[in-house]
Automatic annotation (TrEMBL), chains A, B, C, D:
Domain of life: Bacteria
GO biological process, any: L-glutamine catabolic process
Reactions this protein catalyses: L-glutamine + H2O = L-glutamate + NH4(+)
TM segment ranges: none
Family: Belongs to the glutaminase family.
Annotated keywords: Acetylation, Hydrolase
Subunit field text: Homotetramer.
E.C. numbers: 3.5.1.2
InterPro entries: Beta-lactam/transpept-like, Glutaminase
Gene: glsA
Keyword Phosphoprotein: no
Enzyme class label: hydrolase
Organism phylogeny: Bacteria, Pseudomonadati, Bacteroidota, Bacteroidia, Marinilabiliales
GO MF term list: glutaminase activity
Protein name: Glutaminase
Length: 304, 304, 304, 304
């Protein structure tokens, strides 16, 4: 399929589209991004590449990293992982804390903050140098040995992160955090600080479009069954409490971040990444979601 | 693919499987079913048929009907439907009532009881003879003009249904029920009372495996886009608060009922139905879910 | 103490007080009341009487009746009553339904709607002619044999009362309603429909200011211990989720109704009733609360 | 009234009483207390003293301290205090976190942990040496210049206190904590670490039995109006989610601590303290509550 041509069609349909919402504002590094930025990159699992706009510009991938830490933890402890974190959608946002209490410290899924903190705790427990090893893992996925944490972003996150401190202390109280709180938080803030371009992002996630094996390098990063399951978790939980809306309108497993990035996957076909900093009320990129909705309508291809 | 052979493989793997849970017990018609019943039927969208066990025996499809009433309401009022009901998963069960209050009477999705009642209200509003017209619609989908409501089951449901009366009164209070409460409840109990075999069930839902068009009769029941969206809603919301688990393990959009039936769809390939009355704690067929999990593992085909 | 003089002092302090809020509007009988009405009556347990304003005008006492039905049920089944309803404050209003679910159908206290419905269920269970016998009981308390239900108000309540139907159905589902739902609701609407003047109201509640025994007629309506306990329940639960505020500012056990009435008691001293139809956000009379706050400040007498 | 004689009567009635529950076990200092300890002391506001059992033995007063920190903060910033903390009962315990979220970080009352932390934050903000000045205040109330913090208990609390860290971080996130989290927590753990005897406890709280003025020394610690209001807050919120039960059975404003102590007040009459380490399910002293229930029944004196 000629995706470049489809990109053109979609952009034509978006003519007159009025972007809404604002970039995340809780740290300067996100607040000060030019809100008109817009980039798209698509890579097929046969290594065809298509892009538009600011697809070569780096942005903070934020929560999108949580898929990669999940993959790493899943490889390490297999299905035992699910004793400490669930795979169910989270319902409404105001429930996060009560559900943690009600469920005795077991977060609903690995992508809400509480769940991502548990995943970090697993990695801190099983890795000798979690920060270093995680970075190396992401580098190997992306084929880019120069990827780095952004310490400025990590520091900003840390300075404002009372909510995450609240969550991790509650889970520690309920017995689902095994390591030192500050160590786990530090790791968490670092992994969310990575910056990538749309191009790098699709390359990094391509293995999930082909059952865990990178078809370009032929390296297997995850078993086929686990790869499908990570996609399933993204489908159900990848967009905060807007997972239903994204499934309904876009129809692809994916993950968003408050930096305005979204990565999505059509299994056996492609991985696509979009970036546009303005967020809707649920914290997902407004324009990014619109673009993907029109894109899957135009291609008439989704998982459904 | 030779699905019959795969059925055999799966059954072999289930050798030694110990069924657990009990059939639903709140009405005699469900309580008195032989809990050892087990049937499977698969139909491809090229009309190949495969089955095992009690696939020709009728059982109460219960909530599985809610997909069909959704389809009918969606055809009638298009995207306006989503002003009155959401497409997000419901979170934990104990939240149902508080979420209704918090969301001002808008149910999270069309498959929780509150949502299905709103769908019934829509049909009562827009159809002249809702019960008759809905039955005719199901008959046309199934190609079986003899399908009937089971009045015995409908009566039993009505006699025990204080919870549904509580829900519909709350929504009436909040302005999201427009018709007479008793009329809507009567319609609701009837539509949940339909009985089908696994064979009939797959035939009825086959159009959702081919973008809304029945490839055998060439009749279009739903637009391609709406058909995909119904599948998306099933994926996210079809299994009460076990949607994540089903997605994770089975990886197909589907819908379960407390009669022990499950229908699931692999878009562009097939529709499968299983029936086994013992339910797990979340109200889904234990053995049915296990069978489907092994089945999609064996075929290595899912939407992910 | 010369309460009449204190009334004058308080009114002087309220000079310039700007009443706020609106009368209850969900039924015409409450909506159409003149919002500027204001009456006060105080009776000591030595039968001294003091009043100001519209103290001889009848108004709908609404939830204030719930104290009287509680008294009657408590006499009938003693401490067994507390197996079916609690004595704890209700917390925030949006919790009512979830707490009922969480607590398995046991309402937090007899004054929230759910609790008052359970009390009605108790009376329907133990009385031959609940409506008649309850009315006679209220007549005997008030010394006024002409008190009547107001059928017009009862009918209006019934026509709008989907929320109460929701609550009672939920409790029926959870096993805490033993009688026919419509019978209990009919009784409930009637008992809330009684109209009294401030004067009649204080006379009716006077027995709670003297340990259950009417010191004027010397008739004992309730044991001393039970009378104190009813006061305790009023103190903790008599003002919806504003019980703390009322205790804090007024410092007397009392009960309010959405008709704008408040009755309050200083044990061993007096019973006071105020009436002013404008309600604050919590559903209690704005001006009535202000008057009582200044009144207990001026007298320097409260239970604390 | 001869309270010593009444003590004897009550003990006679408790003959055969089987104590239940266990001492708090989350820190060694509470866990290792002899669970059979039992002491009572009553002081009238005319300085008559009555006691039984282990009334001269020190125990950890724990949350009872929260009344004293409230008094100190209330003196410092008057009614402005209630912008940062409410006066309403807290409902069920599992709500604590969700209510904090829902109410934007404003705790329901000053006695739940979240509220007590806000009170500490107020004191840290307005005092130069909060720990020293608070201790001096308690010493002046008690007339005992040798009272000390117990650093061993404070350290134990700190080591296990992830739940409090969770609460304070959540409130910091929501803007209701103004000082450094560790400073506030350190102050909080210290103030809960004070040890007193029943005798010392009643002496310390006696001013609340006489409108804020110690009638023995004639020193005024709090205005009459504020003193009544502190009693009102104790009445509504002093026993976690068992405030209704305590009001209902005992009928006095009071405050309990997980060390097994309870202090209660009959305004214009006396202050009483009981100590017995076994706690019921709600965290209040089982035997202490029973004793007080029988005591107020026997005296036929309560605020109701």
């Amino acid at each position: 399929m000629n995706y470049q041509k489809i990109f053109t069609e979609v952009l034509k349909k978006m003519d007159g589209y009025k972007d809404s919402g604002s970039p995340a504002s809780y740290i300067p590094e996100l607040r000060d991004v030019d809100p008109s930025k817009f980039g798209v990159h698509l890579i097929t699992n046969k290594n065809k590449n298509y892009s538009i706009g600011d697809s070569e510009e780096k942005f903070s991938i934020q929560s999108i990293s949580k898929v990669l830490s999940l993959v790493m933890a899943y490889k390490l402890i297999d299905e035992d992982l699910w004793k400490r974190v669930g795979v169910e959608p989270s319902g409404t946002p105001f429930n996060s804390l009560i559900q943690l209490e009600y469920d005795q410290g077991i977060p609903r899924n690995p992508f809400i903050n509480a769940g991502a903190l548990v995943i970090c705790d697993v990695l801190v427990e099983h890795l000798e140098n979690p920060k270093e090893e995680f970075l190396n893992f992401v580098r190997s996925l992306s084929g880019n040995s120069k990827l780095e944490y952004c310490s400025r972003i990590a520091e900003s996150e840390k300075a404002t992160s009372f909510r995450n401190a609240s969550l991790i202390n509650l889970m520690k109280d309920l017995g689902n955090i095994r390591n030192d709180i500050d160590t786990v938080l530090d790791f968490y803030f670092n992994l969310c600080s990575i910056e990538m371009t749309c191009n790098e992002l699709t390359r990094t996630f391509l293995f999930l479009a082909s059952n865990g094996k990178d078809l370009i390098t032929n390296e297997r990063f995850l078993s086929s069954s686990k790869s499908k399951r990570v996609n399933a978790v993204m489908q159900l939980c990848g967009f905060y409490d807007e997972a239903g809306e994204f499934s309904f309108k876009v129809g692809l497993p994916g993950k968003s971040g408050v930096g305005g990035g979204i990565v999505a996957i059509l299994p056996n076909h492609y991985c696509i990444a979009v970036w546009s900093p303005r967020l809707n009320k649920k914290g997902n990129s407004s324009k990014g979601m619109k673009f993907l909705e029109l894109f899957t309508s135009e291609t008439e291809l989704s998982i459904f």
